[in-house]
DNA sequence: AGGCCGACAAGACGGACCGTCTCGCCAATA
DNA sequence: TATTGGCGAGACGGTCCGTCTTGTCGGCCT
């Protein structure tokens, strides 16, 4: 027996390659892979994290990983998204909103301080850095990274700025997508590239400078 | 013969590991390695660029690379710095200064437009991205990347802002290292993470927002 | 109930690179 | 002229890649 293998596949025209039957997927293995991936990236770093290592740690066959994901980065991205969802469920929903007390400056400062703390959380740091780095060099993954991880948060900032605009605290003629970068991007760069101290005082200053400008009034 | 090998090294107490005799180094091989590294990163991308590949392309033994550099990233960093120096020599010195016409806004816009163009130069794009990405994940290399590549440019921006401050175009109480991030960081993030259009119009807007602030005057 | 299907764990497989090493070869030095 | 040490070349054992094979197991159709 054996021998006749692919030729026996009379049932299908051999069209779809990417996805096997998702309904038969083992959720137990999936979760074990997420846990193993996040643990390994935290322990030995992203470059030394290997598909074989993840499989072994998860008690899973390599093929199970290759069956559902296309790359190491892809596994980590989904693992990280899953981690995020689990943490959001654990915390309250309101942890992922921007407050509106009527004072934009104060509200933004609160949110940026929280972002600083979050980026320092060791559960986040290693995988988040790894994904950001991979996205810089791999445009495909980069776009996914931005749309799934960055974009939702940026949208919240834009929304809060729009409210401020309607309340007359931000100029009418301003492009909010650019405006939010004045404080979000410097924060991101300091964290990613270690270009300077990363503190609450720093983000407070950013908000002040961005709102009132560098030029004298 | 053979057999006695390390034990025959009576001359040295076996202390310094890192550097062989630099005076006997082949400059021809060094340059060939730089060229090969930059070419390969441009052609096949950073992850597929390999030490063996660089050695083969440069017509050089692998050991010659391992003798002088500690990693692929290290080779590329030096190659890129060398490329920068050669281009600076070719162009005039004044290409790497920030003009001072007395109008900060105008001067910064000119410089940021030039930066946009430079980041689009295909000779720069691939290696610069690769180094930035590696620096995000490898703190050691990251610090070198910042101090050798980023810092000199940031210093120029700080200098120009200081002149503006003395001319009364920028508030006295402002931390210039933070101030310059208001336009430099958003630019960097858009380029690195593809978070939005990357154009002259964009950088012009950044300068306006940063100088005059988001709040109504 | 029995048979079939497809994901699963395990791991063998050839191939790519790793980083180290050994080998003569050669130029500069002593 | 003899010594020294970097050099090109490439062999080496090792790791991990991505694919393929085998046998097991649980759900679904008949």
From TrEMBL, chains A, B:
Transmembrane segments: none annotated. PROSITE patterns: HTH_TETR_2. One of its GO terms (molecular function) is DNA-binding transcription factor activity. InterPro entries: Homeodomain-like_sf (IPR009057), HTH-type_TetR-like_transc_reg (IPR050109), HTH_TetR (IPR001647), Tet_transcr_reg_TetR-rel_C_sf (IPR036271), TetR_C (IPR011075). Residues 1-28 are annotated as: Disordered. Keywords: DNA-binding, Transcription, Transcription regulation. Residues 27-87 form the HTH tetR-type domain. Residues 14-24 have a biased composition (Basic and acidic residues). Pfam families: TetR_C_11 (PF16859), TetR_N (PF00440). Coiled coil: none annotated. Residues 50-69 bind DNA. Gene3D superfamilies: Homeodomain-like, Tetracycline Repressor, domain 2. PANTHER family: HTH-TYPE TRANSCRIPTIONAL REGULATOR RUTR (PTHR30055), TETR-FAMILY TRANSCRIPTIONAL REGULATOR (PTHR30055:SF148). This is TetR/AcrR family transcriptional regulator.
């Amino acid at each position: 027996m054996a021998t006749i293998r692919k030729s026996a596949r009379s049932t299908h025209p051999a069209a779809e390659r990417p996805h096997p039957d998702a309904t038969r997927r083992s959720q137990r293995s999936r979760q074990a892979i997420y846990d193993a991936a996040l643990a390994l990236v935290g322990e030995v770093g992203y470059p030394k994290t290997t598909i074989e290592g993840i499989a072994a740690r998860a008690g899973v066959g390599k093929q199970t990983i290759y069956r559902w994901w296309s790359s190491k980065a892809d596994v980590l991205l989904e693992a990280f998204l899953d981690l995020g969802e689990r943490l959001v469920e654990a915390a309250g929903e309101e942890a992922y909103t921007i407050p509106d007390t009527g004072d934009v400056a104060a509200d933004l400062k609160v949110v940026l301080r929280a972002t600083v703390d979050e980026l320092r959380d060791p559960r986040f740091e290693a995988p988040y850095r790894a994904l950001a780095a991979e996205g810089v060099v791999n445009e495909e993954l980069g776009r996914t990274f931005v749309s799934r991880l960055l974009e939702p948060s940026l949208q919240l900032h834009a929304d809060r700025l729009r409210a401020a605009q309607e309340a007359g605290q931000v100029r009418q003629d301003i492009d909010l997508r650019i405006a939010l970068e004045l404080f979000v991007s410097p924060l991101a760069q300091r964290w990613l590239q270690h270009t300077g101290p990363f503190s609450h005082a720093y983000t407070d200053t950013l908000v002040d400078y961005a709102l009132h400008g560098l030029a004298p009034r």
